[in-house]
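Appendix B, record 7
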Amino acid sequence: MKILITAAGSHGDVAPYTGLGTRLSAAGHDVALAAPEGFAALVRGSGLDFRPLPADPRATPAGGRGAGDKGGGGRGSSLMARAAAFVDSLGDGLVDAAAPGVDLLLLSTTTAPLGWHLAESLGIPSLGVYLQPVLPTGEFPPVVGGTRSLGRWGNRTAGALGQRVVDRLHTGAARRLRERLGLPALAQSIRRRRQEQADWPVLHGFSPTLVPRPADWRRGLQVVGNWWPHEPSGSQLPPEVEDFLLAGPPPVFIGFGSMAAGHGERLSELAVQALRRAGVRGVLQSGWAGLAATGDDVLTVGELPHAQLLPRTAAVVHHCGAGTSAAGLRAGVPTVPVPVTADQPFWAARLSGLGAATAPVPFAGLTADRLAAGIRRAVEDASYRARARVAARAMADEDGAARVAEAVARLAGG
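Structure tokens (predicted):
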């Protein structure tokens, strides 16, 4: 089959699909991955065909303006305004990406609301391949709505209201997309309802160890386990990283991914102070914040495979994006969660609930002393590592990419 995977957002929203794509390619499918232009090298480096999407992740909610930026209350700086701009740029890009011919669409959380219309126009099947549990459930509140449970009825109601907000956000872009595709007018809420009534399948790429499948989900919603970013055969950590790891005890990893742009200098100083107060060495991942520090006890790195680096650390400090949360747990090392925005408080709470992470330290209240205390707790209390290792062993038996490949094979056979 000719398969188009569509993913948009920051690195963590795109990289896992390179692993999914290569698994499907190995199964004999012709696979392309549509993503923002900045990920062209990442996608092509995994051996997949790259199709560009116009959305700029650094100008969208995934990338943000920088953690803690209140934006002055103006519309142009608000989260919703950036989300609307992101959605507006996405529809035409999806159509262009599918133009060379596609038999099956695999749609991420961010691309599905518009991808449904594209699949309808092309007359082809589609599957949801989500990295977050965004569908309403009574078992927990919406992943972007805070971590305090509202009770089963309240959680599910809040989830449904959240879906309505998403539908309103996509209303204009969906209308323009349907006009371009020659489809009759249809409200976005009705398009969603039809997907639900048809039990549209969504395979969720996170571990049931971290988030078990909610019992009140419809049959087509499944939790299959992570699909991991593609790693070229024989890839190794850079020599300077190997040298640093071998030069002393396991360091603590600190990284904020696509968060905190513009806060690099402050965060770098804070991180180094926290590491030294905790008495540990550190590896700083520069990320979009631009973390950087020098010294015998600290090393600054760029984008590195988490699967190779994190198992060799004493603990990981991060923003708790879905991918980094899973990577730290897979490595069997404790986490010090510093959630910034969006779904990150949800994943932070999940890690802490497992006992594999310390209590979250919200980014807005981050200080060197609070971070140092969290690092000491994670490194010195062996229970955190023990519980992380239990989770890692369970995750080792999961193969989310294989489950997606099985679903695709069933569609191909039908």
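Remarks on this record: The mean pLDDT is 92. The domain at 2-226+398-413 is CATH 3.40.50.2000 (Rossmann fold).
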